[in-house]
Amino acid sequence: MMNASSEPGNTFPLTIGQRLLAMVVIFILALGAILAFTHSAVGTHELDMVVMDVAGRQRMMIQRHLSQLLLASHGIQTDFQPMEQALLHSVDALQNGGEVIVNLYTDERRSIPAAPTVRIRELLEQQRSLLERFFSQTETLLGEDPAHFTSSESFSLL
Q1: Domain assignment present for 127
Q2: Total domain count for the chain?
Q3: Which domain holds residue 56?
Q4: What's the mean pLDDT in 57-75?
Q5: Per-residue buried b or exposed e for 134-145, using 16+ beta carbons within 10 Å of the residue's own CB
Q6: What is the DSSP string of 38-61?
Q7: For residue 30, is it within any domain?
Q8: Cα-atom radius of gyration of the chain, to the nearest Å?
Q9: Residue 64 domain-assigned?
Q10: Which of 21, 52, 105, 121 is the most exposed place for a label (fewest CB within 10 A)?
C-alpha cells in the first residue's frame, strides 16, 4: 500500500494534520495583519478627530470671548487673556503643528501635525491676523465710557 505523500498525483507531501496546522498559522497571521492595520487606521483617525475638534472649538472660544466682552461692558470684571491666548495658540498649532490643548478645563494636551497644504496655512494665517485685529478692537471698545455701550456704534466696530 502506498503512502499518501508518495502518490504520483499528490503535489503537497504534507499530512492532513500538517495542512490543518498550516491553515491555522495562515489564519492567525492574516488576523494579526488585520488587527495591525485597524490599529494604525484608528490612530490616524483619532488624530484627525483631535484636529477637527480643535478647529471647531475656535468658534466656541470666540463666542466665549464675546460673552466675556458683554460682561465687561456691564462692569463685571473679566479676564480675557486666557481665552485670547488659547485662541492664538490653537491657530498656531493648527498652522504649524505642535501641542494643542484638548481639554480647556484639565489642560490636557496632544501633539498635532502642521496643516497639510499651503492654502490651509494661508487661511490660518488670515484667521490669526483677524483674531489679533479683533482683540485690539476689543481693547479699544473696553477703553470707552461704559455709558457709551448702549450705542451700536461700539459693537459695530467689532
Answers
A1: yes
A2: 1
A3: 47-157
A4: 87
A5: bbeebeebeeee
A6: HHHHHHHHHHHHHHHHHHHHHHHH
A7: no
A8: 30
A9: yes
A10: 105
Q: Is 54 exposed, middle or buried (0-12, 13-18, 19+ CB in 10 A)?
A: buried
d(CA 110, CA 88): 16
Read off the pTM: 0.65
Q: pLDDT of 33-60, one tens digit each?
A: 999 999 888 877 888 888 899 888 989 9
What is the mean pLDDT of the segment spanning 150-154? 56
Q: Mark 75-104 as b/e (b = at least 16 C-beta within 10 Å).
A: eeebebeebbebbeebbebbbeeeebbeee
Average the pLDDT over 79-85 and give the result: 87
- Whether 91 and 128 have beta carbons less than 8 Å apart is answered as yes
Instruction: Evaluate whether residue 146 is within a structural domain.
Output: yes
Residues 90 and 88: their CA atoms lie apart, in Å, by 5
Task: Tell me what pLDDT residue 1 has.
Answer: 45
* Percent of the chain residues past pLDDT 90, beyond the cut: 35
